[in-house]
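Recap from last week: sequence in, structure out.
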Amino acid sequence: MRWVLLVLKLLGLALLLGAAAAVWLAFAPAGDASPHPFNHDRNAVWLEHRWLERGHPGAEMEELFSSLSRRGITYAFPHLIPFNSAGRLPLHNREQMRALLAVARRVAPEVKVLPWVGGLRSGWRRARSGTIDLDDMGQRQRMVAECRGLVDEGFDGIHLDVEPVDDGNDEFLSLLQALRTAVGSKALLSISAIRPGPFRLLFAPNLFWTPDYYGRVGALADQVVVMAYDTGLPTSALYRRYLAYAARSVTEEMLRSNARARVLVGIPTYDESGFMHRAGVETPENALLGVVAGLRGVGGGGTFEGVAIYAEWTTDESEWRTYERLWRGRAD
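Predicted structure tokens:
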């Protein structure tokens, strides 16, 4: 009987310690606000569809690229349009595409413009049905041809965002391999990457990508942009700790596997709240403080490139000031 009581006491102690550790992780201070060397003004931003959808006055486009250049943005991802079920890009405004590129080249020649293409996978339950079937080789080939056409138009590469992609998906790697060949060595292949995790969840394989899969993706892409949001985490401290893990683990994996890809970490600025995104938790401040903490001591040697703002159209002036202060080290 004594040993039963002893086991129960030990179990109770373990539960108590586990609960205390969980509370500490959830609420103890986290993040790093000290000056840091990690910003090299090679940051990115996602732009809304309107920049490639309809004509804009030249002055408006000039102001856009002037502001991006002032804010240390090197990569702009203007949303183009999702691929349809045939693997084609529906009709879009090529005249505006060329006009936007011309302004970018003149006003901010250092900014790389990569159209944001992709879409939802078919069969994935969301508010709207998806159009991409990664198992369809014919569709993948047509997607690749469309991307090659965009590079031929003068874009600096492609930013591919297909969601969700489950950890270990070989068809997605086949798509990247074909794109790598098609766009050529001078164009950039950039991808939006699912948030990282230490292991694959069997009941939700598209929630995280494991380090091994990041390494396989990074061997084919020039740039992985970690979508480090929609985590469902309930407290600021937990989110900062997760961002530290994301920045550190992906950078270290690219170094370990000697991958070609450079790493950017997505910083959320959108305000909608729901089960997976709490606007008061997943803030630019919490994200940036976490990224800085995660990069301390990593020694990325250029593997880590910067942060990516999601998104330009949801970022207000106070959030830009937070970015300037915490990331670029510039006073308000």
